[in-house]
Amino acid sequence: MPFVVVATGTVEPRQTVAVQPQVTGVLTQVTFHEGDEVAAGQVLFQIDPRPFQAALDQARGMLARDQAQAANARLEADRYAELVKQDYVTKQDYDEKRATADALAATVRADSAGVANAQLNLDWATVRAPISGRTGRLLVREGNLVRANSTDPLVVINQIHPILVRFAVPEQNLADIQRYRPNRLPVLVSPSKQDTAFSAGALTFVDNSVDTATGTVLLKAEFANRDNALWPGEFLNVQLQLYVEDSALVVPAQAVMTGQQGTYLFAVNQDGTARSQAVTVERTAGQYAVLTRGAGVQAGDQVVTDGQLRLVSGAAVEVKGGTGAGGDVEADK
Predict the structure, then answer these.
(1) Which pTM does this prediction carry?
(2) Domain boundaries, the chain
(3) How crowded is the C-beta side of 101, counted as CA atoms within 13 Å?
(4) Architecture per CATH, 249-330
(5) Does domain 2-14+156-244 have CATH number 2.40.30.170?
(6) Could you report the per-residue pLDDT of 271-316, keeping only the tens digit for each?
(7) CA-to-CA distance for 274 and 269, rounded, in angstroms?
(8) Cα–Cα distance between 57 and 46 in angstroms, integer?
(9) What is the pLDDT of residues 189-202, one digit of tens each?
(10) How far is the C-alpha of 307 from the C-alpha of 268, rounded, in Å?
């Protein structure tokens, strides 16, 4: 019988990126449709590249001009270095030529940085997906002017393969979670308690502190979500399985009654009469109650699941059949 911690969780993407323009210009092309799956590096938007191409050409021209001037200044400084040794020119003249050559070399380095910056702006005119994921609502259309570092994104991308489910559990469970966590604890989620379609994942995160306001600790589980069964923002029922108890003594939960003396059930004797038996419930697991050993009920005993209010110890019990709503159910392993 698995030991399960039940909680309510919320689906969240593993990564979320708000795609924003890094240059200002007119949006000329959108290369995807809303809701498409996109891959990292895929082109999403194209901003008019002509102004950035012109700026790059201009920066390259300035670099070429200054490189030529710097090369000539360096040659002239080298000639003056030979002439100053022979006292044909003064040392001051040589120092001026050398300073001019150094200044032009620095200008070349600045021009190179300008070319790199212009190339970067041209590259940024093509907006690519930073991560793989599913796109959301398209917030800007072709023909609109987009601005660098605007607070409004062009589109939001959510990574949903894999996806995360966050949930909180009482701090009383933290010790057991830390104890069994090295075993890669399985987590099952479903849209409702009655739903039998579960998605299986594993616990990946335990928060480093307990929320003092609620007395709970935040956990996260990761799911492959290949079938897109989980969607960001969805509320789910979560079952965190800590361990599986071997040879657990269980009875249907409806067999256990609560009275002034505590919890009890009616077991069926071999002669067909009922007896009231006090039991201790360790925990409940879905439709079953897990009992402590040595409580007077053994594996294989029949217990009453319906009509207990009309029973007293020693009364005859009619077994109406099987494990149905009107029958007796055996204590099970």
Answers:
(1) 0.72
(2) 2-14+156-244, 49-124, 249-330
(3) 17
(4) Beta Barrel (2.40)
(5) yes
(6) 888 888 888 888 887 788 888 876 678 888 888 888 777 788 888 8
(7) 6
(8) 20
(9) 998 766 667 899 99
(10) 13
- CA-nearest of 216, 161, 154 to 40 is 161
pLDDT band at 328; cut points 50, 70, 90: very low
| Structure tokens belonging to residue 101 | 């050559």
Q: Assign a CATH topology to domain 49-124.
A: Helix Hairpins (1.10.287)
Question: Of the ranges 5-14, 167-176, 213-222, 271-280, which one carries the lowest mean pLDDT score?
Answer: 271-280
- Owner of token pair 């993407």: 13
Q: How many CA atoms lie within 13 A of 325 on its CB side?
A: 0
Q: Residue 332: is its pLDDT beyond 60?
A: no
- Rounded Cα–Cα distance for residues 218 and 83 (Å): 79
